[in-house]
From TrEMBL, chain A:
GO terms for molecular function: metal ion binding. InterPro entries: Metalloenz_LuxS/M16, MPP/UQCRC_Complex, Pept_M16_N, Peptidase_M16_C. This is Predicted Zn-dependent peptidase. Residues 63-175 form the Peptidase M16 N-terminal domain. Gene3D superfamilies: Metalloenzyme, LuxS/M16 peptidase-like. It comes from the Bacteria. Residues 181-362 form the Peptidase M16 C-terminal domain. Pfam families: Peptidase_M16, Peptidase_M16_C.
UniProtKB/TrEMBL annotation, chain B:
It comes from the Bacteria. SUPFAM superfamilies: LuxS/MPP-like metallohydrolase (SSF63411). This is Predicted Zn-dependent peptidase. Signal peptide: none annotated. One of its GO terms (molecular function) is metal ion binding. Residues 185-358 form the Peptidase M16 C-terminal domain.
Length: 427, 429
């Protein structure tokens, strides 16, 4: 395997792309008790329209298929995979995001057995009409649970207001109606197309022997047959840079109204240095203004427009990016107007050297802190690798950012046409 | 492999726990203030932890304080309240990057300790009172936090279950405090309470990360101090009401998914001999996706997305949580009760026992890989006033027999069932 050494953070990664196309990363951390393994496919809820493997026509599958598929991977003809992991002392889980579906385990014992189980269960699908029908009740309850969560509703509501066409506006789990149309054949079509090793990454981090682990993985993969495959042809609709709706209002039983302001950051395909620079500047600038003590936080706080639930987050994926600023507020109209106004004012902003230095220090420290977690490292390494960025080289990139980088970014950051608002009022 | 070596020393009227480990790229300092749970102080403690984060004498508002934290490589200051058994804990935590990973930096650690000292001992105040405008603003924030519980139905149902189940016990108290108690709190009274907390609470300070124990002990001892001896605050144990039949509480709101929660009494606490068996019992019953509840409520009957159990280590309680369709209440309830009977009858295999033990040990070891989790686990011993290290805990769990688990199952009894359901749904009770 190819050994990558990162002296400044005392980390080493082994990397290899196997003959069947699978990308493997091994990160040994002998001081940890635990090993975390994640097997991830570059396939999420936004990959709704594509040309299936061995097919010629473009198809569009029902909303919620990627997530449904994730649920069904755990059930086999004769057993439940959670129990297999349970017997090997591991806790297993899975998640579906906009761009990824990932299967994972954490264990402190039987590591090699658990890695084998992880590879084998994801590469051996079993879907029957009966089990697909049975799952609909469970997923419907999951969807209903989210329907009762105002925070999730404002999150999705803001996305729906921001995007015209892009499938990021679709609920990851689908709707109760859409999941009822899902069939066994839909699952096989998506599985065969997106779960090819060429489209997948395995990342193992923690307490294990690198050589033995590498041998096990190679041997396991060599024993399986996969058809040859080219890149999956996915289609995303043309998405305008402006938002679809300036404002969206929902009603729910809530004790205090909620309001989220969304900034549509990107709808273009980005990779490598361009992606990373935007990713860093976007998150650092939002943090500068809206973190506790930031100038915009201060103003909203002093005007009694926010409380402890105030939050902000930025998100940048390969072809879509957004920033959310929101929380509970007794006056959602004033909150939204005020945040819009504050954001507009950044067109004239200019950072000084001291402010930039503080932003960079904060980002570096928080990144080191996040790296305490094997889960963070494994998930983020894959996330960045998909867009051609190496997580472990981010700190030097942060150090190299200049005052001018920040000023150029912030002065071109905000355009009122790219801002949408979602309000949740009491019924 | 557990990778911890806790060094405890008594100094300046508090206990200092140093836990050197190479697991983390940060160093964290955690101060834990422990006091008996009481209605008189709980709202003050909730408010206090917010006010203390609004500024110090040298950094006189939140912005100044935050800028200092940011310049210390994004040091993270958090404060929170929790309850364990009969006690309330206020935790102050400051975590910062270990300077060894940053070129040309050598003063981060000293400045971090200095800042924590300032936050705890020199908060923004004048004439023995906090600043009135800060207190007023934080009262509003706390009020909204208290009210927002109703928007998180799982938390809300859990809170209501405890209100009913522990109506005569201090464990019912809400950690976030009570809106009606806020008015009586003044900037002066809150400051007076803050001074008495520093004097009277039991204080434990934990330092963890890749640190030199001796150097750290010297630094922390010079920062934290008090005149008095360490207090071991005892609480008079309350007798609980014991009832022949579980009480059933049904409430209705405009919601899509019903929450069905059960409260059991275990009468087993962290220091007890059968605490290990309680761990194994919970693992078999509802702690994992391989447990009885998940398999039967979710997998076999598709009634819920989640169905799980969790126990409280100091008060002796065990809870079951599930989110179900309102119409499925009776069926879900029957299944949960049946599964408890299955446990009481010992209807589980040695293989399930062995697997469950391994999962629990796995979970404990994983907790020790997390800088916050590690401190919480070590601190359990202080809460229970019992020496029982993570190693002892793991060994004890390994030695649990099937009979031990059956005995624990039969010691448990159902106290309260709480259902939060849809307004349109009929429930026969």
């Amino acid at each position: 395997m190819n050994k990558l050494t990162y002296d400044h953070i005392e980390e080493v990664i082994y990397k290899e792309k196997l003959p069947n196309g699978l990308t493997v990363f091994l990160l040994p951390k002998p001081e940890m008790a635990k090993t975390y393994g994640i097997f991830s496919t570059n396939y999420g809820s936004i990959d709704q329209t594509f040309v299936p493997i061995n097919g010629r026509e473009r198809i569009t599958v029902p909303e919620g298929v990627a997530h449904f598929l994730e649920h069904k991977m755990f059930e086999k003809a004769d057993r439940d995979v959670f129990a297999d992991f349970g017997k090997q002392g591991a806790s297993a889980n899975a998640y579906t995001s906009f761009t990824k579906t990932a299967y994972l385990f954490a264990a402190t014992n039987h590591i090699e057995k658990n890695v084998k189980t992880l590879l084998d269960f994801v590469q051996d699908p079993y879907f029957s009409e009966e089990s697909v029908e049975k799952e609909k009740g469970i997923i419907a309850q999951e969807i209903e649970m989210y329907n009762d969560q105002p925070d999730w509703q404002t999150f999705m509501g803001t996305l729906k207001a921001m995007f015209h066409q892009h499938p990021v506006k679709i609920d990851i789990a689908g709707t109760v109606d859409s999941i009822h149309t899902i069939t066994k054949d839909d699952l096989y079509t998506c599985y065969n197309t997106f779960y090819h090793p060429e489209n997948m990454t395995l990342f193992i981090a923690g307490n294990f022997n690198v050589q033995q682990m590498a041998d096990l993985i190679k041997h396991n993969q060599a024993s399986k047959d996969f058809a040859s495959m080219e890149d999956v042809k996915r289609t995303y609709p043309d998405e305008p840079t402006s938002v679809a709706e300036r404002e969206r209002k929902l009603t729910m039983p809530v004790s205090i109204p909620k309001c989220t302001v969304g900034i549509k950051e990107s709808s273009a395909e980005l990779t490598g240095d361009v992606f990373l620079k935007k990713d860093l500047l976007q998150s650092m600038v939002v943090d500068f203004y809206f973190s506790k003590g930031g100038p915009f936080y201060r103003q909203l706080y002093d005007q009694q427009l926010i409380d402890a639930s105030f939050y902000f987050e930025t998100n940048l994926e390969k072809n879509v990016g957004f920033t959310f600023i929101g929380g509970n507020t007794s006056d959602p109209d004033r909150f939204a107007d005020q945040v819009r106004e504050l954001l507009q004012s950044t067109n004239q902003a200019e950072f000084n050297a001291e402010e930039v230095d503080r932003m960079k220090k904060k980002k570096i420290g928080l990144l080191l802190r996040a790296m305490n977690s094997l889960e963070f490292i494994a998930n983020k390494y894959i996330h960045y690798d998909t867009v051609g960025v190496d997580l472990f080289t981010i700190i030097p990139v942060i150090q190299s950012l200049t005052v001018e980088d920040f000023n150029t970014f912030v002065q071109n950051w905000i355009d009122d046409k790219r801002i949408a608002v979602c309000k949740i009022m009491n019924e | 492999m557990i990778g911890t070596n806790e060094n405890i020393m008594e100094a300046n009227g508090f206990y200092l726990h140093t836990v050197p480990t190479k697991k983390f790229k940060t160093i964290s300092i955690t101060a834990k203030f422990k006091a008996p749970l009481s209605r008189e102080t709980i709202t003050q403690r909730a408010l206090l932890q917010q006010v203390l984060q609004q500024g110090t004498q040298s950094f006189p508002d939140r912005s100044a304080l935050q800028m200092k934290l940011d310049s210390l490589y994004g040091a993270v200051l958090t404060m929170d309240s929790s309850k364990k058994g009969d006690y309330h804990m206020m935790t102050v935590r400051l975590e910062t990057a270990n300077q060894k990973f940053i070129s040309d930096e050598s003063a981060i650690m000293d400045e971090t300790i200095e800042l924590l000292k300032e936050v705890v001992y020199n908060p923004l105040s004048e004439n023995n009172a906090f600043i009135p405008s800060v207190v007023a603003r934080e009262k509003d924030t706390l009020k909204q936090k208290i009210n927002a519980v109703t928007d998180d139905k799982m938390r809300f149902a859990n809170m209501r279950l405890l209100d009913e189940m522990c109506s005569d016990e201090r464990y019912r108290l809400h950690v976030q405090g009570y809106e009606e108690d806020l008015e009586a709190i003044t900037p002066e009274s809150l400051y007076a309470y803050y001074r008495s907390m520093l004097r009277e609470d039991q204080l434990d300070v934990y330092v963890s990360g890749d640190v030199d124990v001796n150097a750290m002990e010297t630094k922390i001892k010079s920062a934290f101090m008090r005149d008095e001896e360490q207090n071991s605050v005892a609480v008079i144990t309350e007798s609980m009401k014991k009832q022949d039949h579980p009480q059933v509480i049904i409430e209705k709101q405009n919601i899509q998914q019903a929450k069905l929660h059960f409260g059991y009494r275990t009468n087993i606490a962290f220091g007890d001999d059968d605490y290990f068996a309680l761990h194994v019992f919970n693992g078999l019953f509802g702690g994992f996706p391989s447990s009885k509840l998940f398999i039967n409520v979710r997998e076999k009957n598709s009634l819920a997305y989640y169905a799980a159990s969790r126990f409280e280590s100091h008060k002796g309680l065990l809870f079951v949580f599930s989110g179900i369709a309102p119409k499925d209440y009776q069926q879900a309830r029957d299944i949960i009760e049946q599964q408890m009977d299955v446990m009481k009858n010992g209807d589980f295999t040695e293989e399930e026992m062995a697997n469950t033990k391994e999962l629990i040990i796995n979970q404990l070891l994983e907790t020790m890989d997390n800088s916050k989790g590690m401190i919480e686990l070590l601190y359990q011993q202080v809460v229970a006033d019992t020496e029982r290290s993570p190693e002892t805990l793991i060994e004890g769990i390994q030695n649990v027999s099937k009979d031990d688990v059956i005995q624990v199952a039969n010691k448990l009894y159902l106290d309260t069932i709480y259902l939060l359901t849809n307004e349109g749904t009929d429930t026969d009770e």
